Amino acid sequence: MGGRVTRVFRNFNVENRARREISKEKPTPAPRHPTARLDAMADSPEIKEEVLRKDDRFLTLLKDVYVESRDPPVRVKDQGGEHLPCKQEEKRLTKLGHLEGLDVKKVPKGKISIVEALTLLNNHKLQPQIWTAEKIAAEYSLELKEVNSLLEFFIPFTMHKFPKETKKAIKSHKPKQLT
Fold first, then answer.
1. Composition bias, kind Basic and acidic residues: at what positions (predicted)?
2. Residue 107 — φ and ψ, nearest 5°?
């Protein structure tokens, strides 16, 4: 409905408005910048002669300039006493128990493997008075703040077993009969 109304107003007196626009005088273009006229002056012989002429003073100055470029020599330090410090992480053996074949053998200090994380979360869940955050941090070489956030935000899966339905419960459910 709204489209029809707007179309009527848009198309109203279209021909007269178009004739009025066409009959208007064209606007005069903006003046060109003077550098745009250099193409016309480039054809003149004086300018061509000036461009092609060699200036002896500039040539002598240019001959005095000499640039030499070389790569700096490579310095190799082959002294036995100086060694570049290399960043080596301290590693610790993992504490996996019977799950040794499932995970990596060495882990950097301050980090734990996935199997270790699941093990420590399960230990804390089953025995929270023994496996405290402080003991876990000391055992696995972790920071206490990280262990606290780990224990707060990550919870291992729990399995709930629902009791099986008894025969009495099955009999009370009456199946629909097809007719």
1. 17-27
2. -130, 140
107 within 8 A of 91, measured Cβ to Cβ: yes
Residues 6+ apart with CB under 8 A from 116: 94, 95, 96, 103, 107, 140
Quote the DSSP letter at residue 113.
-
So what's the pLDDT on residue 92? 63
Across the chain, which has 179 residues, the per-10-residue mean pLDDT values are 77 87 88 67 77 86 85 69 58 58 70 85 91 91 92 81 63 60
Instruction: Specify the pLDDT at position 69.
Output: 84
Q: Residue 96: which of 110, 114, 75 has the closest Cα?
A: 114
- The full set of domain ranges for the chain reads 91-153
Which residue type does 159 have? M
Q: Supply 55's token pair.
A: 């200036």
Q: In the structure encoding, which two tokens stand for residue 68, read together?
A: 């030499």
Q: With beta carbons less than 8 A apart as the criterion, state whether 48 and 42 touch.
A: yes
SS3 91: strand
Q: Contact 113/107 with Cβ under 8 angstroms?
A: yes
